[in-house]
Amino acid sequence: MSIMSQTTVLDRTPVRDESLAVRLQDVTVRFPTERGVVTALERVSLTIPSGGFLTLLGPSGCGKSTLLRVVSDLIPATSGQVEVLGTTAAAARARRDIGFVFQDASLLAWRTALENVQLPLEVGGRSKRGGARDARELLALVGLTGWENAYPHELSGGMRQRVAIARALINDPKLLLMDEPFGALDEIKRDRLNEELLRVWEETGATILFVTHSIYEAAFLGQQVMLMAARPGRVREIVPVDLPSPRRVALRETPQFIALAAHLRTVLEAC
Amino acid sequence: MSMPALSSHDASEITSADAEAQAGFAAAARLAAWRRRLLPLAAVIALLVLWELGVMIFKIRPFIAPAPTAVAMTLYGKLGMLLGNLLPTAIEAVAGFLIGNSAAILLATTFVYQRTAEEALFPIAVMFHTIPVMAYAPILVLLLGNGLEAKVAIAALICFFPTLVNMTRGLRSVSSQQMELMRILSATPSEIFFKLRLKSSLPYLFSALKIASATSVIGAIVGEWIGATTGIGALIIQATYNFDSPLLYATIVVGSAFSAAFFAVISWLERYFLKWNVAQTA
Ligand SMILES: Nc1ncnc2c1ncn2[C@@H]1O[C@H](COP(=O)(O)OP(=O)(O)OP(=O)(O)O)[C@@H](O)[C@H]1O
Ligand SMILES: [Mg+2]
What we know:
The complex is a heterodimer of chains A (271) and B (282). Chain A has 271 residues and is of the alpha/beta class. Chain A is 35% helix and 25% strand. In chain A, the strands form two sheets. A six-stranded mixed sheet of chain A has the order 5-6-7-3-8-9, with helices on both faces. In chain A, helix 9 packs across helix 10. Chain B is flat and about 75 Å long.
């Protein structure tokens, strides 16, 4: 893994496609509940360039998960426009262009690591897309060589999350949505997985939309950090991140990073 | 990856210490396993000896409580007759087990997909469950006659409710994130059922089946009490009326042995199908 991250120093600006991976325009989501209508998202607009990495940061209940659900066609927007990979969210999902990683790994307990990674190939009209990746290679990519036949209960929390990432990558998605995937891990594991995720991002060229509660994670991973405010959930500020690539954990000690994190904290506290 | 390699000296030292620790651990595990098996066996033998001594010392008459040796002699002498009576009971219990559990699994599946069916039928199932088997057994014998059918029906009914409840719970035991995962993968309803719901329900189903393996035998025996000329239940009644306590006890031993074997088969199937289950392997 160290070889990979040292050799792939990508200059991503000129290589990448200029088209947008995600475009939301005035998206509002309301849920009717017993206590009245909850506005989870209020006129949210955002764009993510193809190949970009946007991190979503905000207090609990500000609609981060709801936003991911709208983008992945799990729930409809009450109003506004949603465009994913140049089409509707439903079409992008049906094309298998969207990968999703949940907070708990949501592995199926009766399947080995390898079988879990292969699940997307077995359901939902597997022939729709040819470009499936090799499950063993993906497990190797996330550092799990030798664990192919382990059941989820034999894996640590961090390893399960890696399996979930490999599973999300099996259809070679153009867009990867991650909802607090490392929220339940200790800091050391989280740091390592952050570095690895950046490496996977560079290797696959996918666009990533990543939800987190951690200011440091948001700043370390994102090309852009979107800060949200709650009640109703809305965009507070979108902060571009100008940090050198490839990013290593040591970057967090630099004055540049500390200043960025301080800025994010100020905005977040005002939310 | 960049870790300095251990010197061969260190490495061998660690492996031999490891091997020693491992051997020690294995020996302790073997001892524990033997203890687990031998202690209950010793307790059973001690109880039997006490019982035998008790019968001898207090000169208890055989029809009140037979000595274990008398029971053993009956078992040996009348084994053919006992097994001949076990056969119908076993058939009734196994048939009832299959029918009752299949019906419960089908109804549970319906409940999961049709809330209305659950709301309409579940209270009725609860009501039936509160009726003691001794109360509805004669009704079934009247309805279905004195043959195998009534006993099978009683065994099936007695299995039905626990499996219905467990299976419904099991089929619902999928997390909302697992469901969302399946939706993102555009899984069809039948894929969601077979690849997610059914598999999630297996631990629940097997704990119900283990209960049912014992209760289905009880159901068959109770059915035979009401009207039958063969079977473990009929033999129990006859032996009681004839004050033939050694035969009564021997019959009970044969019935229990069958129950235990049935239970063991289900447990073995559970271990085979639920290798992945933490609760099973731990
Ligand atoms: N299915 C639903 N029905 C009703 N209300 C909902 C539903 N889903 C979300 N909400 C509400 O919408 C708001 C935003 O929820 P959401 O889960 O998107 O927040 P979040 O930012 O992901 O929070 P967290 O950081 O705690 O995960 C919350 O007030 C929540 O109660
Ligand atoms: Mg959330």
